[in-house]
Amino acid sequence: MTREPLERLLENVTDEDLEKLRDAILREEGRRRTQYRLMIRAPHPPLPPEDLGDSIGSRWAKLLAWLAKDQSIPLATNKRAVSIRLTTTDTAYDAHQSGILLQEALVEAGLLLGRTPEWMDATTTQAEPGEIDTVWIELWDKPGFEMPWSGPPPLP
Q1: Does 1 reside within a domain?
Q2: 108-147 confidence digits (pLDDT tens)
Q3: Could you tell me if residue 71 is inside a domain?
Q4: Model pTM score
């Protein structure tokens, strides 16, 4: 059995076909990755950040770190995707401001490495009415690379 050169096999493949293949591979990898879920029911720290200034983010970070440790959720070592859903009984939260507050708290708690696209992906924040005030946070690891500062360089 002879093997064809890769160039000949790919000569009729378009960039769009390659993008679709890459997306399908990433979706499949996402299905196989562990998802971490946190559910915080009321009473919890307030969400509007203008009420208590910077201390509110630290209170959320401590709560998230404690809940993550209790559920054996590991600290972030790579890029993660985040989904945040807020349900509220009375006052509708500003989803954008609440999402930023919670993302910053996740970073401070060590559950995210950062809020930039380099460290965080697929972030969504939804706010909807519900029977009880609840914050739902889902995290899942994304494919990535080893951070250059994670250890000594390999020997030649």
Answers
A1: no
A2: 999 998 888 777 776 778 888 888 888 999 888 876 654 5
A3: yes
A4: 0.68
Q: For the chain, what's the residue count?
A: 156
For the chain, what is the domain count? 1
The answer to whether position 106 is within a domain reads yes
pLDDT per residue as tens digits for the range 5-41: 777 777 888 888 888 887 777 666 666 667 899 999 8
Q: Is there a domain that residue 28 lies in?
A: no
Evaluated on CA atoms 93, 98, 135, 30, the torsion sign reads positive
Domain holding 95: CATH number? Answer: 3.30.1330.70
**Which among 102, 60, 97 has a CA at the least distance from the CA of 82?**
102
59: domain range? 35-141
